[in-house]
Design goal:
The chain has seven helices and eight strands; from the N terminus they run αβββαβαββααβαβα. It is an alpha/beta fold. Helix 3 links the parallel strand 4 (101-105) and strand 5. The model has no long low-confidence stretch (mean pLDDT 90).
Length: 208
């Protein structure tokens, strides 16, 4: 797993360990103490798989969670330098190691904002697809966490939009998703590998 110290990675590692899985997590030396206890630490640079590709095998699933923190339109350069480079490194490492299943958290699209972020994530999806790996791609829009209060004011807007036929599809695709729902979807993706390419949109994660 990459991104194991993040807001999705930490609870995912804890959930997988509690279910008896072995988890090897890539992290920088300075961040290794932030990994949940029980995870096997692999120290390396997520942007360059050369130093850790040998530590991937014998994993059967590779989960890629690296991304620029707090995405915004002002971070287009970081999306290319971090998000795009890291998914390329991850796909290369997984392919080289003979991983059977690749899990990638992308983003919902199309959407009216965050064009640079969406473009990079779509390129990441294309890399995964071209790799030939069996893969699960998740497409959340905004992941709700307990300390983010402001998105809650949007809930009534989404509720109304879902009642209007012309807006329903967009409201469902760009739904706000609780972090636990995404983590649960990731756990299920790990435990039930895809046969080919599987895409999980927001509604599928919310209805699990």
């Amino acid at each position: 797993m990459t991104g194991g110290t993040g807001y999705l990675g930490r609870p995912l590692i804890e959930a997988l360990l509690s279910r008896g899985h072995t988890v090897r997590a890539l992290t920088r030396q300075a961040s290794r103490s932030r990994l949940p206890p029980g995870a096997t630490v692999v120290v390396g640079d997520a942007l360059d798989s050369g130093g850790w590709v040998g530590d991937v095998a014998p994993a059967d699933t590779f989960v890629h969670l690296i991304g620029t923190p707090h995405p915004s339109p002002a971070k287009a350069a970081q999306f290319k330098a971090v998000d795009l480079v890291s998914i390329e490194a991850a796909v290369r490492a997984a392919t080289t190691a003979g991983v059977k299943h690749f899990v990638y958290v992308s983003v919902a699209h199309p959407a009216p904002v965050m064009k640079a972020f969406i473009d990079v994530r779509k390129q990441g999806e294309a890399m995964v697809s071209r790799s030939g790996l069996a893969a699960t791609i998740l497409r959340p829009w905004y992941v709700l966490v307990s300390w983010h209060r402001w998105p809650l004011v949007l809930m009534p807007v989404y509720a109304v939009a879902r009642l209007i036929p012309s807006m329903r599809a967009g409201a469902e695709r760009l739904a706000l998703i609780p972090r636990q729902a995404v983590v649960d979807a990731l756990v299920k993706a790990v435990e039930t590998p895809a046969d080919g390419l599987r895409i999980l949109e927001a509604g599928q994660m919310l209805n699990r």
